[in-house]
Amino acid sequence: MVRYIKYIFITIVIYIIIYTLIILFLHHYTGYNDLTQVPNFIGKDVNNIENLSNKKLKTKIGYTYDSNFEKNTIINQYPLPYSMVKNNRIIYINVACSTIKKIKKSDIINMSKRDVINILNQNNIYIEKIYYTQSEIKDKLIYIKCKDELINYEIYNGCKVQLFFGNGINKNEIKIPFLQGLTLDEAIKIIIEKKLTVGLIYYDRHIKDKNKSIIYKYKPSIPSLDNEVLYGTPINIYLCDEKS
After folding, report:
1. Range of the domain at 26
2. Residue 130 — φ and ψ, nearest 5°?
3. d(Cα 203, Cα 223) in Å, to the nearest integer?
């Protein structure tokens, strides 16, 4: 009996040692010991936030006009307060400013897609959708819309915009492809190949399985063999059950 108890005790000790070693290894491998808790900056004045250097964290500050907050008040942050992050992680802080930030349309027209997206993101201008339109200048910004209206002068902070880039094609029009009976994935592939744009997608209300649905109608459609549309034209798609 004593030998049996001794054996159980030794087994338990061995398991504890193995478990401890595994935990120590995981802490070292995942850098758990290098984690730092993110402070809560929301609602504080950006000029009075604590110095992060001792916590090995960095900050990147952006400004947004918001009439609901006083100037220099921190509106939000990412990562969220009290989350655990690795040392040297950048904490993105969004601060209320007293004036509406804006950029001139002329400053970004004919810029590359990457540069335009970076500038808009830095100025808290939200990109709702990106389109391609007929233009011999490929991947350069041609024009901008906000709430479906052309922007002619300035874009304001917080605005949601649609961007229209050139598709690099000189020809103005292309024939509408035949899409009826195709699946959504098949149609999207053809639409993109033809330098058109996928528009709105509608599912029949009686549809049972969207993954097995097919196109029964699309707009603009093909009333005649000579029907053509401009490059970048959105094609709206209507789907129903495969057997309906």
Report:
1. 2-30
2. -115, 130
3. 22
